[in-house]
Amino acid sequence: MKTLMLGNEAVARGLYEAGCCFVSSYPGTPSTEITECVAKYEEVYAEWAPNEKVALEAALGASLAGKRSFCAMKHVGLNVAADPLFTISYTGVNAGLIIGVADDAGMHSSQNEQDSRHYAQAAKIPMLEPSDSAEALRFAKLAYELSEKFDTAVLIKMCTRVSHSQSVVETGEREVPEQKKYEKNPGKYIMMPANAKKRHPEVEARTRALTDWAEQTEINRIEPGQDTSCGIITSSTCYQYVKEAFGDTYPVLKLGMIWPMPQQKIKDFAATVDRLVVVEELDGFIETHCRSLGLSVSGKDLFSNIGELSQNLVKEKLGGKVQTGACLSEEIPARPPVMCAGCPHRSIFYVLKKLNLTVLGDIGCYTLGAVPPLGAIDTTVCMGASVSGLHGFVKAGGEEKERQTVAVIGDSTFIHSGVTGLINIAYNESNSTVIILDNSITGMTGHQQNPTTGYNLKGDPCTKIDLESLCHAVGIKRVSVVDPYDMDTCQKVIREELAVKEPSVIISRRPCALLKYVKHPGPISSDPEKCKGCKACMNIGCPAISMVDGKAKIDSTLCVGCNVCKQLCKFDALG
Amino acid sequence: METKNIMIVGVGGQGTLLASKLLGRLLLGKGYDVKVSEVHGMSQRGGSVVTYVRWGDRVCSPIIDKGQADCVLSFELLEAARYTEYVKPGGRIIVNSQQINPMPVVAGMASYPENLEEKMADLGIHVDAFDALTLAEAAGSSKAVNLVLMGRLSKHFEFTTEEWMDAIEHSVPPKFLELNKKAFALGQSA
Q: What is the pLDDT of residues B97-150, one digit of tens each?
């Protein structure tokens, strides 16, 4: 049956059809829907793991037990999972193991723009790169065949435009291969030096065998063109841009497997064209490979290694003409993302700003606490870096910094990698104050359950990790819980904890305002008679409040009645 | 046939994804090659959102580039103005004339530009601006702006009312079906 599917949904379908039985992932845009979609198939066990390293190790375990397994993550998640990745390359697999990784060129929702293809080369693990949903489905099935044939994990590299574009796919039936028997094999699975030394040559031999496969496979295909003055090597969404820009004008070598790459096929293709051009996003990965083959090639001299490409860009850089539309002469105000009305993070950031604190931030919706008018965050690096960074900051900065600095981290991010930083704070005894913003959900990626919510990926009730007990257990004696809507209490508790000479955790607890089960009191209104136009309520950056004719006005379609603004009004004009 | 391009733009949370789902369903049913490209994640938090819908004999790129959109369907006035450069010469903007202030305007750091409808028309774009929010409310819910806009869009494409209704039935929950059909009809006749 023909149907429209997101690239991520098509990967999930491919996994299902190939008989995948075990999925463990950590959410991250743009990879999240692969796992959400595969979880809808009853036959597949699927879970959210606390982080990507745990997810990949769990998937390896399932593979060793003999069932086809999978894990997904965003590009920066692969950094977290890199430790098992590099050694899984040596152990190989039992049943097929696929790792889905989604890059975010253009940084639509990420903190960096790293190019995950380097991981395939560095870890010596083959990587497939689909260019649309139909290929995403097909490649997922193919990846299991490769995984089992060559005894290796296989990476499937997605990107925002493939993950989040719907295109036409044809679905098939599920076929589950017989469960493989687990056999003890110390030489293959115990990677101590004596064994690993024997495995490394196997890995190199595997890469040579996969290179031979890359020469033959139809997923690395040459598409002829009428004009051989230029030949283009490309993959992923860039292939689609090339085809959109030039149709069948120029010959194209379309690479479906991006590592290892063929050698002879590329040389043969180069020999048929006058000028060889590589069209790829981010780094010159294919281009470098071509140069290593001694070929003269254009690529990053034409196309930037920053941001996304597009059909117009490809056409223009290769000498084609593009039409463009007309712009208005005046500047159109930007519409950046904002914290939602009623967001429980807002008031905490207001208090932190008011206290003029240095705030080490983390990854989640609450990164929006960095933008005006709140502007309360000093740093954002990676998952967990707020807590570990705070320890170094106050150890190096001394007593003055101890009294003026906090870390803020969400519930899911805390479990992901904040808790290890907290253990360091307890163990190495820094007078750190950590604020856990517990909104009872993984918010930024679109409401995924996590170990603190009491529900699993399938929506069933499960063990709920108690944050207070966890903090106590790792050695933090001072753990307090506040309601972020109550700003006076928040301010008082933060001051107290900063003043004490021992580590403390403040849990700011209130569920995300967008959760369906959260019942709001309903909109408040402003009294134009009482409003003096002092704009105190404007300092929290609530999208429901605006100034109209010098008076505060509440948008009743947005306001949920959190009453945070009311606490700022000295004239009792809001309520 | 030449590939057709519609950009659906608006403010995160306005329901643009339902509109693209509905269009995708309709176009696939007509046997076209279809691509629908969305943005998820950070941009959905009240920010500017864009969805690309493309169909034809063979559609390659998932995105619409500058100068390529046959139509920009905008859920909000300022968002229409943001994307005029994407409209192809002689193209069209269908826009809900509702204004939602972005944070820089709310915070008083920028002002909402005036007379945008006229200014967009001055660029040679066919501008069809109307109050879809009031029509949606008349249909029973302010959230039905997407179906009102779909109704308006239907006037410019050759699909039958039956085909639209079939797509609506497959895209919205049954309990909101009548409301959505009513909103579509109001947009169509407005």
A: 999 999 888 888 899 999 999 999 999 999 999 999 999 999 999 899 999 999
pLDDT at B39 over 80: no
Q: How far apart are CA B59 and CA A360, in angstroms?
A: 46
Residues A432/A461, Cβ–Cβ less than 8 Å: no
Read off the DSSP letter of residue A415: I
What is the ipTM metric for this complex? Answer: 0.95
Q: Is A244 on the interface with B (CB under 8 A)?
A: yes
Q: Which of residues 294-313 of A touch B (CB under 8 A)?
A: 310-312
pLDDT in tens, B65-81: 999 999 999 999 999 99
Whether A359 shows a pLDDT value over 60: the answer reads yes
pTM of the shown model = 0.97
B39 → chain A, closest CA residue:
A164
CB contact, 8 Å: A539 with chain B? no
A554 → chain B, closest CA residue:
B106
Distance CA(A368)–CA(A476), nearest Å, equals 28
Across the interface, which of A30, A132, A168 has its CB nearest the CB of B40?
A30
Nearest-CA distance from B66 to chain A in Å?
A: 5
- By C-alpha distance, the chain B residue nearest A133 is B35
A387 by DSSP, 3-state: which? helix
Token pair 């170094």: residue:
A392
Cα(A493)–Cα(A436) distance, rounded to whole angstroms? Answer: 13
Q: What is the DSSP letter of A240?
A: H
Give yes or no for a contact between A3 and A12, defined as CB atoms under 8 angstroms apart. no
If 0-12 CB within 10 Å is exposed, 13-18 middle and 19+ buried, where does residue B60 land?
A: buried
pLDDT score, position B13: 82
The band of A452, judged by pLDDT with boundaries at 50, 70 and 90, is: very high
DSSP annotation of A326: P
Summarize pLDDT for A422-450 with one digit per residue, the tens. Answer: 999 999 999 999 999 999 999 989 899 99
Three-state DSSP state, A210: helix
Contacts A333 to B, Cβ<8 Å:
78, 102, 104-105, 110-113
- For residue A398, the surrounding DSSP H or E stretch is helix A385-402
List of chain B residues whose C-beta atoms are within 8 Å of the C-beta of residue A4: 24-25, 28, 34, 36
